[in-house]
Structure prediction request, 470 residues.
Amino acid sequence: MRVAIRGGSIVQGDAVSRTDLLIEDDRIAHVGNLDGVSSDVTLDASDCYVMPGGIDVHTHMEYPVAGFTAWTQDDFEAGTLAAAAGGTTTIVDFVKVAPDATLRDTFDKRRRRIEECARIDVGLHVIIPGGQTHGDLEGDLAYVVSEGVTSWKFFMAYPGLMLDDSQMLRGFELARDHGVMVMVHAENGHMVAHDTAALLAEGHAAEANHALAHSDASETEAVNRAITLAEHVGVPLYVVHVSSANAAELIAHRRSMGAKVFAETCPQYLTVSWEDYAAQGALAAAYLCSPPIRERSNQDRLWGALESGGLDVVATDHAGFCLGGPEEPGTKMGSPGYFPGVPNGVPGVYERLMVMWQSAVVERGMDVRRFVQACSTRPAQLFGIDHRKGALLPGLDADVLVWDPNVTRTLRAGDTPLASDYSIYDGMKVTGQPRHVVAGGRTLVVDGVLQDAGPGGRYVKRASPRAPGM
Prediction:
């Protein structure tokens, strides 16, 4: 199958040029003028940008929560279909080990699920367990590295997941020896527990108080400590979902002093604020994630960190739940009036690129090349897939996004195949959306309409990251 994409402006590294692109089967075959070249399918990219497909390196599909008593609503079928509809052609999800399972078995099951039903390519990170596990954990870690899992996540908060400094040091040493990127959920778990207990004791259990329990100080302290531990061991560090401007500026400062530290933020932290949900009562549960969506006054400095490169990546931390109602386990409103009972996470894998194009490019004037770097190129570099993805070069995977910057629409919950039944971006007007999406050579969006071609996404075996700055 030969697919020609003609007439667009190709975003290629540091350049934007008006030219064409040819796909043969699942690879990019040629970038340049295609006059006289025949193809089976032609996709019109007139007045559009042609970009590498989006890469979201932080999602939670079929993810266990609440001590493995509930799961996120979106499975690898619905979640990857929604990602494709929004212009994302690769995600990297997580392996979370149950107390009665081995890491190896859990990884193998997740991989099989991807190969059975994913519509786009999917890689995996592993979460380092916070308690006792079955089997040989270090042996299983070596096994998953051999299978292309070259990033491990460490939690600095949450009962059952939280690791102390000695555990992190040992885990960081193993990661260094295996050539693995260390990831951290950076909140000081003791501070969060202390502040949660104080709020509950004072009768402040309503949903919006979640943000007060997850203070800016708890995030900034944990970021600083994680960087220090990683520097001490000599391993690169990636901080997930940075919500605090103070933490973002600390990361930029430590990097300027030589620390090999990288970081992501998420659209919800840049475009939604605490003020948007503080007065919504039980419905505020829809917005709860950790770290929290903070005050509007935090946003401009967070934007500054992204625009300057102090923050490398825009991912989503997609975790889709339904709103539900009282005593419905695993739903956002299952325990109204009690913020510790609300499952953490917001959906966003579908909206990410549209929300970021509107807020970053349209409203703040971000250069399209920086947009592509944050949403595709840099994630590929940091997570060991830049030899396959994140750029439009002959021989790379045919993951191509044709982006129409002229279409205006209003985002609505229910626009996607997602099982989660709400969106924190509902009602947001955006200019710019996918016209065509090609993932692994399969055309999944044509003229803005999603085409479900069935399973065909692949598990992505990743290399040890060797990104610039590492």
Observations:
- Residues 19 and 454 are 31 Å apart (CA to CA).
- Residues 54-362 form a domain with the TIM Barrel fold (CATH 3.20.20.140).
- The chain has a mean pLDDT of 96.
- The longest strand covers residues 2-12.
